[in-house]
Amino acid sequence: MTSLEKYIDAYNFMGSSEEGIFFIVVMILVDIAEFFGISYELLNIIIIIVIPLLFIILLTLLIVEKLKNKRLNFLINNITSNEEEN
């Protein structure tokens, strides 16, 4: 399949649109998919679903870790202040 056929196939997969920017982005995505040896559809799934999901999971883990550290520091400060008072 030639590059032009891949562009047309990807463009038809996403539906016909008269937007020039959309077609340019589709062409770029087809080139990126070709570079990595994957399909345009798989690249769309990775960009739209996998990457944001990984970002949300990472962000959630960072927030949980930050809250654990904050809670731990609060407990340590309370214990040391109680020891100093006695």
What form results from the Cα inertia axes?
Answer: rod-shaped
What's the story with the biggest beta sheet? none
| H/I helix tally | 3
What integer value in Å does the Rg equal?
Answer: 25 Å
- Relative strand content: under 5%
- How many strands in all? 0
Structural class, from helix and strand content?
mainly alpha
**Helix and strand run:** HHH
Q: How far from one another are the termini?
A: 80 Å
The tally of domains stands at: 1
Q: Overall pLDDT, averaged?
A: 81
Query: Helical residue percent?
Result: over 70%
| Contiguous runs where pLDDT drops below 50 for at least 5 residues | none
Properties at a glance:
86 residues; 3 helices; mainly alpha
Write the layout of secondary structure elements.
Layout: H1 3-13, H2 20-36, H3 40-85
What does this structure look like?
With 86 residues, the protein is mainly α. Helices cover 86% and strands 0% of the residues. Helix 1 (3-13) crosses helix 2 (20-36) and helix 2 crosses helix 3 (40-85). The longest helix is centred in the C-terminal third of the chain and has 46 residues, at 40-85. The protein is rod-shaped.
Brief write-up:
The chain has one domain.
